[in-house]
Amino acid sequence: MSSPEAAGWEGGGPVIEARRLFKEYPSGAGRLEVLSGVDLAVTGGETVSVVGASGAGKSTLLHLLGGLDRPTRGEVVLGTWYLSRLSDDELSRLRSRLLGFVFQFHHLLLEFSALENVMLPLRIRGVEEEEARARARKLLEDVGLGGRLDHRPSALSGGEQQRVAVARALVHEPLVVLADEPSGNLDRANSEHLHDIMFELAREQNVAFVVATHDERLAERTDRLLAIEDGVLAPIQLEPLG
Amino acid sequence: MFIILVLIVLVAAFNIISTLTMIVMDKTKEIGILRSMGMQSRAIRRIFVYQGALIGVVGTGLGLVAGLIAVFLLARYRFISLPGDVYFIDKLPVSIEPLNLSLIVGASLVICLIATLYPAIQAARMTPVDAIRYE
Fold it and tell me: Do the chains contact at A92 and B35, CB–CB below 8 Å?
């Protein structure tokens, strides 16, 4: 599994698919059903946003799509891989090659510099240090942080931290990036800047983005907009922003 | 003497267990981040075993050096007095036995290594989603 092709995906068709996805959590004596048969198919390079109220299941859906959690029923297909049939180690290998994550609160490793944080996915995948350093540096320059390579996250602003997180999610050229409220913690100017970078890199790398967000400005820029309500996904249209 | 020293090392080992358990709790989110990037659970386990082993090796080394310095000083200056009418000698004698030294160093390293296993296994067992959600 050294490349998307080797991982079983040869282009064409959805890069990631959710098929009748159910997720329940124990709740007191009963069970709380968060997802009730979610269907979703995202093609290569497509950007999709998922909106919904807090607790509607947006993050749960992203976790299931990313193989970080397992559904109660249903299937996630990444490339040609059926995630329910994979062991934890196989899921880890697939994540290291085909998936990138951006979280709301950057989730950078505080002891590492920006450059080292972006190198991490490549190093985990087994890429040589020099090559990883060169690729990470290039991507950090692309997101406008070429002058902040050796800065630790604590020395960066919120917007810069999220740009490092986006670079980290894209450095290993994944098939899909799953972004959970990527600009939920930023002001409007920083959010717009982050969205510009995300969409530009998505286009350049032809990587699919699934974004869970409350931010209508982000949602309206994606190719497709879906709302999650009562545990199911449905396409919606936003009112034009004033 | 060997048993007493092993007991002392055992107490130290519980300190390693509690310290590493605290570190694992403190690093839960980072464990989740690394797992989300595809790091395998055995690699997570290895990180904490290395950290525990490092604590064990540094601690044993420092203890060995401090102990040897104390023994040499005691042999030279004989500053611990004993009541001669009870023990037939009036100063505490010291002797360095290479076999005892090796056994103590070996036992402390093995106990430290065993002490790292529980917290390291706990760290590796965390599911990625629980680790990421941990606050």
Answer: yes
Chain B contact for A63, CB < 8 A?
yes
Task: Choose, out of B28, B30, B34, B36, the residue to mutate when testing the contact with A (most A CBs < 10 Å).
Answer: B36
Using CA atoms in the order A221, A223, A225, A226, what is the torsion angle rounded to 10 degrees?
-150
Task: Check whether A113 has a pLDDT greater than 80.
Answer: yes
Q: Where are the beta strands (DSSP E) in chain A?
A: 14-27, 30-43, 47-51, 73-78, 81-82, 99-102, 176-180, 208-212, 224-229, 232-235
Q: Which residues of B touch A97 (CB under 8 A)?
A: 38
Amino acid in position A173: E
The answer to whether position B6 is within a domain reads no
Note the pLDDT of residue B8. Answer: 81
For A128-151, write each residue's pLDDT tens digit.
Answer: 999 999 999 999 998 888 888 999
In a domain, B134, yes or no: no
The secondary structure element, H or E, covering residue B124 is helix B98-125
Q: What is the pLDDT of residue A142?
A: 87
φ, ψ of residue A217 to 5 degrees: the values are -65, -35
Query: In chain A, which residues have their Cβ closer than 8 Å to the Cβ of B32?
Result: 107
B33 exposure class (CB count in 10 Å sphere: 0-12, 13-18, 19+): buried
Superfamily name with CATH number, domain A14-235: P-loop containing nucleotide triphosphate hydrolases (3.40.50.300)
Q: What is the value of pTM for the model shown?
A: 0.83
Beta bridge partners of B112: none
Q: Which residues of B touch A121 (CB under 8 A)?
A: 37-38
Helical packing angle, A114-125 and A158-170, nearest 10° = 20
Q: Identity (one letter) of the amino acid at B118?
A: Y
Q: Which chain A residues are Cβ-neighbours of B41 within 8 angstroms?
A: 88-89, 92
The mean pLDDT of chain A is 87
In A, minimum Cα distance to B35 occurs at: A92
How high is the pLDDT of residue A181? 87
Q: What is the pLDDT of residues A177-195, one digit of tens each?
A: 999 988 887 888 888 888 8
Asked, for residue B108, whether it belongs to a domain, the answer is yes
Name the residue in chain A with its Cα closest to that of B128: A68
